[in-house]
Ankyrin (Hyaloscypha variabilis), 187 residues
Amino acid sequence: MKAPLVAAASHGHVTVVKLFKELGIDGWERRQSLLEAVQNGHLPVVAELLVTPRDLSYEKPDGSGIGYLGSAAQNGHLDIVIFLLSKGASQFSLKPRWTSPLHQAAEEGHTAVARALVKHNAASLTARNTDGCTPLLVACFRNKAGVAEYLASKMEKDDLDIRADNRFSALFWAVRNDNVRLVHKLL
């Protein structure tokens, strides 16, 4: 069962969230509520609950390393991604080879979110996740052609052939998925 503030944030009830905020809320409940608002795309609630720059470095307690920016990217909430970037959010985790917001956007095929992350210099096109995959590799593996084509167009030619830990490349996955258009872009 969700705490009342978490439930209000999850459903986008900004007036109720403001009431709880006035009454005082602890850090954990506020962070969980903020995460729910981010995941469910409720920008007014996100704006209400984001208090300090330190909030931007919060990661989900499930050990995934995904924070607010990654959750917004994963769920395709472009308005929240842009808002968090405007507040100083960064895709760069303190942990090496961790899933970045750009990886999340690529995995789910959210091209507009990927564009925003790249445009705001908040993404590394060659960052590797725990499997050694770049965002392009993730997009090709998941057959997310739109975001894969966009990422390929932004990368240096030499970086298009980066291979994951399993030795597969973006080109391999494009061929495997029979994506002729993407194969042309990667050659």
